[in-house]
């Protein structure tokens, strides 16, 4: 018996915005994403920062990792990547079946050469549309270190609500214990925000 297909398989790929194309990552995207993910300005905020391309490639090509990774292209060049980890919501046992696969944790990274031009905003705005319109999720979340101001400002720009501020709860690989932040958005909130 094979595993359930990725929820992202339900989307008609690639998805296009005004300037960008978004599609599921393939093993062939490892080198293109490594080019910017290896840079300190990017990887200082990422969950993992392998020191070699080979270590990165192994991690990138893990089936569970590929199943939730999208790449962002500008004129055919990979300029960023997105993560959509569809998950179950917490629920009491009697209603747990209704909470399966109804929300997602999101993440993103962008090549710094393309920063400051609105590409991250455009890509994550489309990611929200994919989550709510195509995948029919009810809620999305995203987390970051409080010091990662570009990330939390992006969340706020897109209408996400700060739900959590933690004090020295998040352990950074070089900076020690840092404050963390958590944001969320519900489908009905996105509908209201996207009509503005």
Automatic annotation (TrEMBL):
Organism: Georgenia subflava
Keywords, ordered alphabetically: Transferase
InterPro entries in UniProt: Acyl_CoA_acyltransferase (IPR016181), GNAT_dom (IPR000182), N-acetyltransferase (IPR051531)
Upper taxonomic lineage: Bacteria, Bacillati, Actinomycetota, Actinomycetes, Micrococcales
Record's protein name: GNAT family N-acetyltransferase
One Pfam family in the UniProt entry: Acetyltransf_3
Top-level taxon in the UniProt lineage: Bacteria
Any one GO MF annotation of this record: acyltransferase activity, transferring groups other than amino-acyl groups
Domain (N-acetyltransferase) ranges: 20-188
């Amino acid at each position: 018996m094979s595993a359930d297909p990725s929820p992202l398989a339900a989307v008609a790929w690639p998805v296009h915005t005004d300037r960008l194309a978004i599609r599921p990552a393939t093993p062939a995207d490892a080198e293109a994403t490594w080019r910017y993910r290896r840079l300190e300005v990017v990887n200082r905020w990422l969950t993992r920062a392998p020191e070699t391309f080979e270590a990165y490639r192994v991690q990138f090509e893990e089936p569970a990792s590929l199943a939730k990774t999208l790449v962002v292209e500008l004129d055919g060049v990979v300029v960023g990547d997105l993560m959509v980890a569809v998950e179950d919501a917490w629920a009491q046992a009697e209603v747990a079946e209704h909470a399966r696969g109804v929300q997602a944790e999101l993440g993103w990274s962008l090549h710094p050469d393309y920063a400051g031009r609105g590409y991250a905003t455009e890509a994550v705005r489309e990611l929200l549309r994919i989550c709510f319109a195509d995948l029919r999720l009810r809620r999305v979340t995203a987390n970051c270190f409080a010091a990662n101001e570009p990330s939390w400002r992006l969340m706020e720009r897109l209408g996400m609500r700060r739900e959590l501020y933690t004090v020295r709860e998040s352990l950074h690989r070089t900076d020690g214990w840092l404050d963390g932040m958590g944001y969320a958005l519900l489908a009905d909130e996105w509908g209201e925000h996207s009509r503005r």
